[in-house]
Specification:
Elements: H1 2-18, H2 33-36, E1 49-53, E2 60-65, E3 68-71, E4 79-84, E5 90-98, E6 100-107, E7 114-115, E8 122-128, E9 134-143, E10 146-155, E11 161-163, E12 171-177, E13 183-190, E14 193-200, E15 205-208, E16 215-220, E17 227-231, E18 239-243, E19 251-252, E20 260-266, E21 272-278, E22 290-295, E23 301-305, E24 312-316
Antiparallel strand pairs: 1-2, 1-24, 2-3, 4-5, 5-6, 6-7, 8-9, 9-10, 10-11, 12-13, 13-14, 14-15, 16-17, 17-18, 18-19, 20-21, 21-22, 22-23
């Protein structure tokens, strides 16, 4: 009985690392909007990166370009997990104006916020389908101290909602779609922990790409040729790795870094990956998270943004 309880607690700890649920912890107020306008990336880059930060006192959505930093949301509630639409004209995110978290969509400039889901449960960490017509998201259910996660998909026009993988023997979370094949990558949780899976949307079959509870947070490259994910297979510490969509050819990109490396996202040209690193904790709501870039070809890591607050969950357009 003690062994069973220990395993359940261990699974819960691992789950919190890979499937990071929004928490209600309040951060200390940081810089005001006027001061934020002075914050610049440490190196120039092409495109736009949205991310979540608690620099203003609680989680809001921010936009980073080579010109500087801009606050995208300004609400008394928390706004989290920003994600660009495939055409770059909208941003999906999660917010909790009525305590639990629902999915919302806004324009690329932060205007015209529209609710997508309306549920008493927490819904977060989404993925747009390649055509931009649907959004898959993670739903969390609580039973005592334990949590379970399931993947759902909602049609933005009809609001029709469906469970994506009803026969998976465990939790499913953190979806991401291939832009060139009918595949959805996701993080699956079973007794041994979290691993990376792919789900064939036509054949309705799933396949594990990692084993032993050593992988999570997969994301396809913009051309669909690679998957970036968080791996702890080498030394037990989370690192950013890439592999082929069939699970072969794993390459660790952050092997020389100390601390916890999480939340990777591809650059539009596939040459860079933006990710977050923290030396103290793998929880997104703890520690001192900064944005980094890693060159996929050379594995060279560069600090991108050293700003107050916790900068996490970036997405690059």
């Amino acid at each position: 009985m003690k062994v069973r309880i220990y395993l359940l607690v261990l699974i819960l700890v691992v789950a919190l690392g890979c499937s990071e649920k929004p928490r209600n912890s309040q951060a200390e107020p940081g810089k005001n909007p006027a001061e934020l306008s002075l914050v610049k990336p440490l190196i120039p880059f092409h495109g736009r990166i949205v991310f979540q930060s608690d620099v203003s006192g609680h989680n809001e959505i921010y936009l980073l370009t080579s010109d500087g930093l801009k606050k995208m949301t300004e609400h008394p509630w928390r706004s989290e997990y920003p994600l660009w639409s495939p055409d770059g004209e909208r941003i999906a995110f999660t917010a909790n104006p009525r305590d639990n978290y629902d999915v919302f969509v806004m324009n690329e400039d932060g205007t015209n916020i529209i609710p997508v889901t309306d549920s008493p449960r927490d819904e977060f960490e989404m993925a747009w389908t390649p055509d931009g017509k649907k959004i898959a998201y993670t739903e969390m259910r609580k039973k005592g101290i334990f949590k379970s996660y399931t993947l759902w998909m909602i049609d933005l026009l009809s609001k029709r909602n469906e469970k994506i993988i009803p026969d998976f023997p465990g939790s499913t979370a953190l979806p991401n779609f291939s832009p060139k094949a009918p595949l959805m990558a996701f993080t699956g949780g079973r007794m041994r922990g979290w691993d990376v899976f792919v789900f064939d949307l036509e054949k309705r079959e799933y396949k594990s790409l990692t084993e032993g509870g050593r992988g999570c947070r997969p994301r396809f490259s913009k051309d669909g040729e690679k998957i970036v994910f968080v791996s702890s297979r080498r030394d037990g510490k989370s690192d950013i790795s890439i592999m082929n969509p069939d699970g072969t050819g794993e390459t660790r990109l952050t092997e020389g870094m100390k601390g916890y490396n999480y939340f990777p996202a591809w650059s539009p040209d596939g040459k860079w990956i933006v990710f977050c690193s923290n030396a103290k904790s793998h929880y997104a709501q703890e520690g001192d998270w900064k944005l980094y870039l890693v060159n996929v070809a050379t594995k060279e890591v560069t600090l991108l943004l050293d700003a107050p607050g916790r900068a996490v969950f970036p997405d690059w357009n």
